[in-house]
């Protein structure tokens, strides 16, 4: 796989906006990980205030994928913290996008993985083994489809059905 971490979302928008395979997420996600730019094939978790499946996903070899976590936009607890960010880094995940909160923000910032989320919350999530893996999830005006590609940097998040160069 070629290195796509240098692709800028603004340049991708200039080249692909308006095409049916390309989608631009609404703004609102903040950068927390040590990598501000990241990209890769999408894997998803639907996690309703329960990060059990997030952990299971990040325990797997990431192979440069991006884990998109739909926490329903909840700001009542964190779905990712320093331990899970380090696990994702160790297992080769390119990044994590959380439609919800993270915690341990300073430690997450020291990991070599991209992490975007809506905010921070000190309370950890429940552990009820609830949720779904690798299903389409929709938030920020975009449907995140497993196997499609995500590109993220300081300007935002975009997705494409196919890899972009």
From TrEMBL:
Chain residues that bind substrate: 81-84, 103
The protein's Enzyme Commission number: 4.1.1.112, 4.1.3.17
Keyword Protease: no
Leader sequence residues: none
GO molecular function, one term: oxaloacetate decarboxylase activity
Quaternary structure annotation from Swiss-Prot or TrEMBL: Homotrimer.
Protein name: 4-hydroxy-4-methyl-2-oxoglutarate aldolase
